[in-house]
Amino acid sequence: MATKLLKAALFAQAGAACNCFGNGVCTNNECQCDTGWKGPDCATLDVLPAAKASSGFASRPNWGAAQLREGSIYYTFVGAKRNTSAGASDAFASNAGLHLLRSTSPTGPFEDLGEEIGLNGQSFGFRVDAKINPVDGALLLLTEGYAHGDGFGFIFRRSASGSALGPWTEHLVYELGMRVIDGAEDWTADAAMVDADRWDCRLADPTFVVLDTGEVLVGYRGTRCCCNAIIGAWSSTGEHEPETPGLLRAASWTGPYVRTEQPIFDADVEDMFMWTSARGVHMLMHSQDNAHFNHERRGAYAFSADAGVSWNFSAREAWPTHLALDDCSSTKLAKRQRPSLAFDDAGRPAYLLTGVATTTHGLEWGDGWTAWQPLRGAIPASDAPCAEDECAVSDVGTAGACEACGALDHCTHVTSAPARDRCICAAPCDDERLGAACEVNADALSETCPHDGWKLLPGTSNGGLFRCGSVVDGAATGWYGHCIDAAARCNGVRNCGDGSFDGQDELACPFVAACDWPAVARGDGVCLECVPEDVPNCLDAAPTLDGAACECMRCATPWLGPACDVSLAAAPTTAPTRTTPAPTARTALSDGSTGVAPAGAAAFVVVVLVMNVF
């Protein structure tokens, strides 16, 4: 049955051009992914549980890193909280800098060599990207801040020796800072900007690559200058200001840099990280798409085969939204952003580095730290109990082992939460109960929304929550600061409000909720995550893009494809002819196709609604 569902879900894609997003080869019209990647189109990182004993750097609050190897020593630049004394500001904007770490292993333990200070005695911003220039072997470090003798903006620090220890020179390569709208100085606004409504009036969070020709691409997050109150945040009616990816180009790292003027693809993303391979230019990023109710933890991926002229953006999630550990435990995260990669000696991705936190404030350090998560096949095998895979669906990790979920009162079908940290009910609760574990009475009144609840438009539900209130003529009305369990919607009880309000949870009934991602409907109201048994010959399964069925992300040898029904042992077929579409302003192929299908192939279009919150 599962295979039939998968075949139906993929029928419209049958015959589509084989596109492996620069991370695999097309074999018998299916993608055979490189080490460290998985999925039908190789656009998802194949991460392993992180080592419990060395999962990252957390000695001081920090958020993202760039790591390089010099001989037997690893040097890591981290964006970190400068002053950690009692009473010091917890804001990114006023208490940030770059720290240099040293270690003999990619994952530590780390020796903190202290803050990197500029030639004028200044601190730098906490965004960092560092790479060796293939033209001259110098180490280039890109960040935001002041360059000695030049001014403020995107700056390159250059170590001619190629060493992270310097000595360094500083070079302003794109000037930022001007007066906008109310006359106040905006230090992230483009100094050449004349339109405060321009999609990238503000430029931030730079990343870069140096091509073999010496040409440099600098990616950045663009936002308008018009909308301070809603940039990176939800308003009470769901209004938000998108974060849009842009690109600067120059013939060499010294510039001059020229804006491409149009977004490189139409997606709401930030914190991009770029790198190159023999196949092209790759990009990881934090996605603000909230369709799966996980935008603060969601990753995305894109690829360009023509040096950044045109891009394919994948609609798939690039990494898990929780942090699994090799002792079978896991950490449920509030935020997972600011990605980068650490590479092995052959230049292949070996570790995913991300800023992670269980605290929720989008502009403060909180308990943020940078996690190192290994990629499958990229590091030596470990004998830890969950080194190769996290606990299976319906199990939870505890005390170095996976244990099956037991019975829950008022629940007919028990499973585990996606983070494998607790047991939940996979079916509607009986006896008029509510809650993920059927722990709430059906007549419970709404309470102030938790953090995730504020990302819902009033009168809608997702992620197990219903947000009370509604939107009338663009204004939030009713008890819109309150939320209830999503199962309370249309349950015959007015759970919203203070008892005097009509209760929007009982309007527009009956209402049948979809399964919360990544669960898939199994009938009779049961929602379960995909398991390998759903697809024959599969080792790792996940929902299809529309969430209607299961497909395979990693097949057993020698099988390939989302249904694991194409054999490597079969005679190779001729790969379909592919062309690269001309770049179009604010346009992206979000189903991962090149836009070219063989004759007779059915058309298949995915429309991605991308939402933005910080």
Automatic annotation (TrEMBL):
Protein name per Swiss-Prot or TrEMBL: EGF-like domain-containing protein
Position of the signal peptide: 1-17
Coiled coil: none
Cross-referenced Gene3D superfamilies: Glycosyl hydrolase domain, family 43, Laminin, Low-density Lipoprotein Receptor
Keywords: Disulfide bond, Signal
CDD domains tied to this protein: LDLa (cd00112)
Source organism superkingdom: Eukaryota
Keyword RNA-binding listed: no
Annotated organism of origin: Pelagomonas calceolata
